[in-house]
Write a structure and sequence with these properties.
Layout: E1 5-14, E2 17-26, E3 31-35, H1 41-51, E4 54-59, H2 65-68, H3 71-78, E5 81-85, H4 86-92, E6 99-102, E7 107-110, E8 113-119, E9 128-132, E10 135-139, H5 157-170, E11 176-179, E12 189-190, H6 191-197, H7 206-213
Parallel strand pairs: 3-4, 4-5, 5-6, 10-11
Antiparallel strand pairs: 1-2, 2-3, 7-8, 8-9, 9-10, 11-12
Length: about 220
């Protein structure tokens, strides 16, 4: 179990949008980074004050507004560095101050913490997951219950299949997964649980995966079964 940093789960809401962002506290240096800050700034500020840590970085899994809308306000307050996949920046023209493009398998070092970047397109063309020791921040690529929609601009069920298979191979079963949304299961399930219970890990053939994800009889885009 990773003991160098602690993940603080922050549930935020605006209208019908419910997101999870994650403040990761590095214990030794008393610094922190945040993943996909959204909606309720006061919750983030309260947690930073409670922990007495300095916000050094923002990690963005993709460019959708419900994952990025507090980036600029946080830059105004703390001037953190911001990281997003270079492909996402290029394809969606995302811009903010202090932005750095990162690439597949690139390693970031924030304080004493090493962060591995894993490019996982499918929901968007440049989606990025971040692995921090025994934690995985999976954005809208991988949920506990399913995977992200593949219908939007740059979305691809074919690429999502590849990304899901990539995570299957790369992420150890004891890793704790923190997605951008929850649809019944609390964030923080183990990869082992997802491998056993997430329906999209049960497909081994690309054609079956794509057909099921793009099927026309879904009651909603987030109806995983």
């Amino acid at each position: 179990m990773n003991r160098s940093c602690i993940v603080h789960v922050i549930r935020t809401r605006y209208a019908d949008f419910i997101n999870y962002c994650y403040l990761v506290e590095e214990v030794q240096s008393k610094t922190a980074f945040i993943v996909d800050p959204s909606w309720e700034m006061e919750k983030i500020l309260r947690k930073l004050e409670e922990l007495q840590v300095q916000l050094r970085a923002v990690l963005l899994t993709h460019s959708h507004f419900d994952h990025t809308n507090l980036v600029e306000p946080l830059i105004d307050l703390y001037n953190p560095e911001v990281y997003m996949s270079q492909r996402e920046i290029n394809d969606y023209h995302y811009q903010c101050r202090n932005i750095h493009g990162v690439h597949n398998l690139e390693e970031l070092t924030l304080g004493n913490t090493s962060i591995q970047c894993l490019l996982t397109p499918g929901h968007t063309s440049g989606g990025m997951c971040y692995r921090v020791a025994d934690y995985l921040f999976s954005g809208d690529t991988l949920f506990s219950e399913g995977c992200g929609s593949c219908f939007g601009q740059g979305g691809s069920a074919d690429q999502m299949f590849e990304s899901i298979q990539k995570l299957r191979r790369a992420i150890p079963p004891e890793t704790i997964v923190f997605p951008g949304h929850s649809f019944g299961m609390a964030p923080g399930q183990t990869m082992r649980t997802l491998l056993n219970q997430n329906i999209y890990f049960q497909f081994t053939e690309r054609e079956d995966f794509v057909r099921f994800r793009m099927r026309g009889n879904q009651s909603s885009l987030l109806n995983f079964k």
